[in-house]
Amino acid sequence: MKIIPGGVTAPKGFRASGLHAGIRKNKMKKDMALLVSDVPANVAGAFTLNTVQAAPVLWDKKLVTEGGKCQALIVNSGVANTCTGENGYHDAEAMAAHTAGLLNIDTSLVAVASTGVIGIRLPMKTIFSGIDSLIPELGYDIDAGSRAAEAILTTDIYKKEIAVTLEVKGKPVTIGGMCKGSGMINPNLGTILSFITTDLNISSALLDKVLKKDVIDTYNMVSVDGDMSTNDTVMIFANGMAGNEELTEEDDDFKAFAEAVRYINTSFVKKIASDGEGATKMFQVDIAGMTSKDAARKLAKAIVSSNLVKCAMYGEDANWGRIVCAMGQSGIPFNPYKVDIIITSVAGQLKIVEDGTTTDYDEKEATRILAEKQIKLIADMNIGEYAATAWGCDMTYDYIKINADYRK
Amino acid sequence: MKIIPGGVTAPKGFRASGLHAGIRKNKMKKDMALLVSDVPANVAGAFTLNTVQAAPVLWDKKLVTEGGKCQALIVNSGVANTCTGENGYHDAEAMAAHTAGLLNIDTSLVAVASTGVIGIRLPMKTIFSGIDSLIPELGYDIDAGSRAAEAILTTDIYKKEIAVTLEVKGKPVTIGGMCKGSGMINPNLGTILSFITTDLNISSALLDKVLKKDVIDTYNMVSVDGDMSTNDTVMIFANGMAGNEELTEEDDDFKAFAEAVRYINTSFVKKIASDGEGATKMFQVDIAGMTSKDAARKLAKAIVSSNLVKCAMYGEDANWGRIVCAMGQSGIPFNPYKVDIIITSVAGQLKIVEDGTTTDYDEKEATRILAEKQIKLIADMNIGEYAATAWGCDMTYDYIKINADYRK
Fold first, then answer.
1. Each residue's pLDDT expressed in tens, for chain B with a length of 408 residues
2. N or C: chain A end with fewer CB closer than 10 Å?
């Protein structure tokens, strides 16, 4: 596997465009993106588990489960099309239909995504004219992909895209992706949208398997503030244009592809954590020596989700009591007297807890390690063979500022 | 039931004392409390469910389940005696033994509680001399109870105590209590400690029933930051000195007592939420029209636990999308299109959501209501008959300040 420049347009046969249609007030902010494959692609998706689901999420779930094919994706930022009732669902459908009409394809082949303010209707006139303008702007080049990646952001600071190549059954295959996450516009939520394209020829069943398995260890393991959006959407589109013999078995080629997808999604969740609301640093938590994979995941997630741990990271304070406590409140059984904790960054490595209690480490040394922008906390439970990783960011004054919409 | 002045010493036969023993550096801060009943009291307790449990919690759980009797309680603040291994347990036992020796009672009748820094040993010499000084200071008066209530605080701003009287089987019965919560000393956690005394004569079984049932709707329904302490302890002591005929049935007298305990615990959790770290306001969430009591509780708890809702409360922003989203991510099924949301305070009342979408309310009016120090959010799910209440506080810059221990 090799990392190459580009994003969603890197694989063969994918065009994209992105522009400011007028949904967002700030004219400098793009707010609509279009992604089109030359031929219908196999598609798999993973969606929010929130009881309240946005209209486009309901539309895409139907598309993924009923047809399993997709040729275009239309996305808007600025308005989430959530809590908008029947009308909202019709609006999502109209976005797909308008796009399908201009591309001369079936409406059921068009996926839809929205992110932004909850509880207000989409400005459909603006949406339609936005789609009209997106079509002639479609391009196969890197810049076209970048414009789409920019248009799906809300208050994310950085654009998030990536592309890799690998060889499958003797053919070069490319995978590209764009995502957004951790941004926020009042009054709404930090939604994760992630779209991955590939020219790989792969059966729908295997594509679905790759994504479902991957989400568990990537998107499900990142936490900015513990709130689950109504619009979270991860989709992967495989149009088969690499011309490889179709992947239908879990062979070595399949494993290489799954590994590349894992690389892309892991890279995205790290970007999401780093770009978390108000975040000044990203921290990774590695759980080792646990009794099962699932238990290890829950412990890792409990640590990155703890407000107290997140505040301690901001304070560059090796506050290990909070780490142990966060694990304890996960409800997962472990032996507190066997836990070792190590903190590490480019500035060094330090064991701060051994057998569940302090190593009487040097606090200054600990602070020096935690002062870096990328930190790793390793908790070895010493009771098993399983490991898991999660990612989070520190909690800062800016998190409060962004989310309090202070207007007193 | 009548509210009267006082706290844990209000019921007959309870003495208390509180003083600065030297565990905490600040000499103005009391750090040890002693509570003694003239005769052994029936005792019931509810403790943290964290996998990591403090040594005194382990000690008290044994006392409550094995003997069910208690005559004294020794508490220290400043050091939590958590993550301290076998030595920590021996230290807790030694605190009980030293107290028992001076009071000339059995060690197994002495409960122990600690709150403060995790991961360091108790300064036992200071603890022993503290106990020596607490004994001659014991008093039956209101001020003695207040000194104890002060000594169990960590960084709580306000002392929390209460007392009520009611008539049971023709005899006047008194209930008193003290608690602490939401304070924080680096590096540790916001622990809830709550101790209730009564001179009621009641069987152990019924006392346990009152407490266990009550905790579900009071202490379990408050959230400051979603982190569960390793030291949380709620205990109730009933010494029978009111001289009433023993309560052994769930009759009207029992119900009146249970109601009084509910009043005390509800009042305590409101105080804890109001005194939450960095909090500027307390908000109550009432869920109505839900399909079961448990589902209603989970929805209420999800709202008060959401960082995004807490930030919106600080911003005095009627950000109802966050409220709906927080309920949705609880995993509890409901119909989003039937939800009504009302905000209320002394400044007025406003329906902001009807049938799951905005009522196009006046934002200024909403902000005026949310500007108050005590707010209520009512979510009517309109799909059942059950209700539940939870309490939380806003999330502010000061929360970050307190918890980041900013030392860059």
1. 999 999 999 999 999 999 999 999 999 999 999 999 999 999 999 888 888 889 999 999 999 999 899 999 999 999 999 888 889 999 999 999 999 999 999 999 999 999 988 888 999 999 999 999 999 999 999 999 999 999 999 878 889 999 999 999 999 999 999 998 864 433 334 578 889 999 999 999 999 999 988 888 888 887 766 566 778 888 999 999 999 999 999 999 999 999 999 999 999 888 888 887 788 899 999 999 999 999 999 999 989 988 888 888 998 988 898 899 889 888 899 999 999 999 999 999 999 999 998 898 999 999 999 999 999 999 999 999 999 999 988 888 887 777 776 433
2. C
Which residue is associated with the tokens 């209209």? A55
Smallest Cα–Cα separation from B285: which of B224, B373, B162, B375? B375
d(CA B162, CA B307): 30
Task: Count interface pairs A-B at CB distance under 8 A.
Answer: 224
Q: Which amino acid is at A246?
A: E
Choose among B80, B227, B353: nearest Cβ to A326.
B227
Q: Which two tokens stand for residue B198?
A: 């009564």
CATH topology of domain A2-274: L-amino peptidase D-ALA esterase/amidase (3.60.70)
User: Do the beta carbons of residue A75 and residue A54 sit within 8 Å?
Assistant: no
Report the C-alpha dihedral over residues A350, A354, A359, A365, rounded to 10 degrees: 10
Active site residue B191: yes
The DSSP letter of residue B407 is: -
The Cα–Cα gap between B358 and B344 comes to 16
Q: Which amino acid is at B36?
A: V
- Chain A nearest CA to B115, separation (Å): 13
* Amino acid found at B356: G
- Ranges of CATH 3.10.20.340 domains, chain B: 282-404
Region(s) of chain A under CATH 3.60.70.12: 2-274
3-state secondary structure of B118: coil
ipTM for the predicted complex comes to 0.76
Residues 6+ positions from A134 with CB-CB distance below 8 Å: A17, A18, A19, A21, A32, A33, A34, A74
Asked if the Cβ–Cβ distance from A307 to B51 is below 8 Å, we say no
What secondary structure does DSSP assign to A160-199, as a single string? EEEEEEEEETTEEEEEEEEEE-S---TTB----EEEEEE-
CATH of domain B282-404: 3.10.20.340
Task: Write the single-letter amino acid at B26.
Answer: N
CA distance A220 to A212: 11
Listed residue (A172, A171, A169, A189) closest to A180, CA to CA: A189
Is the link from the previous residue into A187 a cis peptide, with omega within 30 of 0?
Answer: yes
- What's the rounded Cα separation, in Å, for the pair B399 and B204? 40
Neighbouring C-alpha atoms within 13 Å toward the C-beta of B160 = 30
Question: Is A31 strand, coil or helix?
Answer: coil
Residue B315 sits at the chain A interface (C-beta within 8 Å): yes
Chain B segment 353-392 residues within 8 A of A by beta carbon are 353, 355-358, 367, 371
DSSP B229: P
Residue A357, token pair as written in the block: 């209690």
> Could you tell me if B327 lies within 8 Å of chain A, comparing CB atoms?
yes
The answer to whether the CB atoms of A400 and B399 lie below 8 A apart is: yes
Tell me if A371 and B408 make a contact (CB, 8 A cut-off): yes
Distance from CA of B68 to the nearest CA of A (A): 27
Selected catalytic residue, list A154, A191, A198, A396? A191
